[in-house]
Amino acid sequence: MIKFDWTITSKESLLKLKLGELKKYRHLFFQLVYRDLIATYKQTILGPTWLIIHPIITTFIFTLVFGKIIKISTEGLPQPLFFLSGIICWNYFSECFSRTSTVFKDNTNVFGKIYFPRIIVPISLSISMFVRFLIHLILLSIVMTMYRDHPFHYSFFKVISILPLLVLMMAMLGVGFGLIVACLTIKYRDLNFVIAFGLQLTMYTTTVIFPLSSAPMNFKNFVQANPMTAVIEAFRYVLFDSGSFSVASILSSLIFSILIFSIGFIIFNRVERTFIDNI
Fold first, then answer.
1. pTM
2. In terms of CB atoms within 10 Å, which of 32, 123, 129, 133 comes out highest?
3. Which of 166, 148, 174 is nearest to 245 (CA)?
């Protein structure tokens, strides 16, 4: 009698995490993370150096345009630090979002040939993006040393207690929204173009380029409604003791992040069974 390790059925619960299967496919998971890290900069002249060049150039442009020309307030924080901190947070969220939103289209050939827990792919993308985020954090630390005369009031306790939560919230928001869009784009391909354009516009409704305190009153509530606003403000509070930190805003953003990730996960579990017939 043949004994099977597991049985694939179309009547599984939408909330089933399949943790046992994820453990069995851990080697595939690490290979996907490695592939994503290597493939992105393969056959490029500068290679992984682009990881550093991109945020540096963006920070320089933001400092020149918004800091020197438009003269947006940074609440006494050095302008390069203010803009760089917002940029690396937004990049992590937006990369998780955009890369996850095309997970079905980018992996159609693999999904159609062999079975493995599909959720491994978006999770592996968030981990590879996290590695890049860590590199950007190192870059931010180096820039901080250039302004060591500035009183940051750095607290190691705040970093280890709050920063991991902020990173988790960015990942859940990005992957959650990405999973929802990935499922919708199976039938509505136009969403790919809308999302790429919408992410660029949405960045200007967060506190990437301006502090929450300087937002106009009639626009402030709209900015606060964006869950990434609380994350970015808390990120600056943790590292620089700057920004409008609020426990209530963090809790509301955390609840919203969990909700979005849960919805994305449920929809993904439902769609992954039949998407190959529709794509």
1. 0.86
2. 129
3. 166
